[in-house]
Design a protein that fits this description.
- The protein has no helices and 11 strands.
- It has about 120 residues and is mainly β.
- The strands form 2 sheets. Strands 2, 4, 5, 6, 9, 10 and 11 form a 7-stranded mixed β-sheet that branches.
Length: about 120
């Protein structure tokens, strides 16, 4: 059974940083691409970043240059390092298992499973 558990969200001031973690079970990061999406109140969910099984990464324009996705295969854990956070980054962030091994997995429809999410609030 596939499960994904996110952690690391919280309240941060504009310009601050957070690191989100994703611990999947039921599959390994070497077998499927993994990604992060977010959903702000009243907005559609968007994929902000992904990393596939060969390490190729994808970033949405809104976060490129500020967010970095990484993974530790030995720990079977994925991370989203978020720098220079802004109020518009406020959202629930979700970790997801892609249906694919390769490619960018830049669309929500490319994913088969999502975790419960972790809330990131950027406010002064």
């Amino acid at each position: 059974q596939v499960q994904l558990v996110e952690s690391g969200g919280g309240l941060v001031q504009p310009g601050g940083s957070l690191r989100l973690s994703c611990e999947p079970s039921g599959f390994t990061l070497g077998d499927f691409a993994i990604g992060w999406s977010r959903q702000a109140p009243g907005k559609e969910r968007e994929v902000v970043s992904s990393i596939n099984t060969v390490g190729t990464t994808y970033y949405a324009d809104s976060v490129r240059g500020r967010f970095t996705i990484s993974r530790d295969i030995r720990k079977n854990t994925a991370y989203l390092h978020m720098n220079n956070l802004q109020p518009e980054d406020t959202a629930v962030y979700y970790c997801g298992q892609s249906l694919y091994r390769f490619g960018a997995s830049e669309s929500v429809e490319h994913y088969g499973y999502w975790g419960q999410g972790t809330l990131v609030t950027v406010s002064s």
